[in-house]
Amino acid sequence: MKIFTYILIIFGLALIAFNATKIDFEAPLEGESLVAVISIVAALCGILLLLILNTSKKIQQKIKGRK
Q: Which of 5, 36, 53, 55 has the lowest tally of Cβ within 10 angstroms?
């Protein structure tokens, strides 16, 4: 599970890098640039959720080790 989440995080970072090249910085909220900005925000949300999942799994392992 840990390796799978790291692979998804790397995929999310690659998606952010790809979409960053699609943004027109003169008009970032128009046309294709808007889609790229939305995709970047969605990828950041996905990465954040995966990091929260990793943290919760670490906490679960520590609690399991105490009992």
A: 55
